[in-house]
């Protein structure tokens, strides 16, 4: 059985999608919605722009993505994806490279596996966005080192700071890397699968790396902001001094007359 997860957009309007997609939901809340389409076919949609399929062929996947496109914000054709294999009928739960062997398949197990695969592809997306932001700050830092000044405008700097804060908020709000789903608290089998998948995908390590990069970005932009404020204050002082000198010169000219 194959799980395929795609990051197709910045976000998906879950409420609007649910109203248009007529299949009964097995589980839903404001952030995600899970469908058991058939006994061995499942669909998972997340607010943070990920859709995940179990036992869907490429044609059905393409059809569904076209259907959900109007409910996406900043839809992307260049989709990040993650593929994961599920093998059933094993004597015990085992984890391998991009695969899991399970003993007793059921809907809750499939949903948990699909959730972790979705979190993994979302981390890829956030890593990509964070890396691009870090490259921007590095360019500014290198220019500051070589020229002794910034080439970014105050308006663009505020936009970058806003994007960084928004990204940090989105990651904290949407990813459950350190929190296991409530179902795992009472089911030893689900808990073992959840912990094993988090380790297989290195979710916690990757999450921390993104958080650390975002903190570096935020600190750099805050430093840039302080430099620009100092530059503005310095220019204001110069203007005030020039105005005072003009006023003094005018007074001296008047007295001479």
Question: What does this protein structure show overall?
Answer:
This protein is α+β, with helices and mostly antiparallel strands. It has one domain (2-220). It is 57% helix and 17% strand. It contains six helices and ten strands. It has an eight-stranded mixed β-sheet with strand order 3-4-5-6-1-8-10-9, with helices on one face. A two-stranded antiparallel sheet has the order 2-7. Strand 9 and strand 10 (99-101) form a beta hairpin. Helix 3 (107-147) packs parallel to helix 6 and helix 4 packs antiparallel against helix 6 (203-256). The longest helix has 54 residues, at 203-256. It is elongated, with a radius of gyration of 26 Å.
Summarize the entry for a quick read:
With 257 residues, the chain is an alpha+beta fold. The chain has helices spanning 14-20, 58-68, 107-147, 154-174, 188-200, 203-256; strands at 2-7, 11-12, 27-28, 32-38, 41-46, 50-54, 72-73, 80-87, 94-96, 99-101. The protein has one domain.
Strand content: 15-25%
The radius of gyration computed from the alpha-carbon positions, rounded to a whole number of angstroms, is 26 Å
Counting DSSP E segments of at least 2 residues, the number of strands comes to 10
Q: Write the element-wise H/E pattern from the N-terminal end onward.
A: EEHEEEEHEEEEHHHH
- Name the assembly state: single chain
Total DSSP helices: 6
Helical coverage, percent range: 55-70%
The biggest sheet, with number of strands, parallel, antiparallel or mixed sense and barrel status, is: 8 strands, mixed
- The low-confidence runs, each spanning 5 or more residues with pLDDT under 50, are none
> What characteristic shape results from the CA principal axes?
elongated
Mean pLDDT, to the nearest integer, reads 82
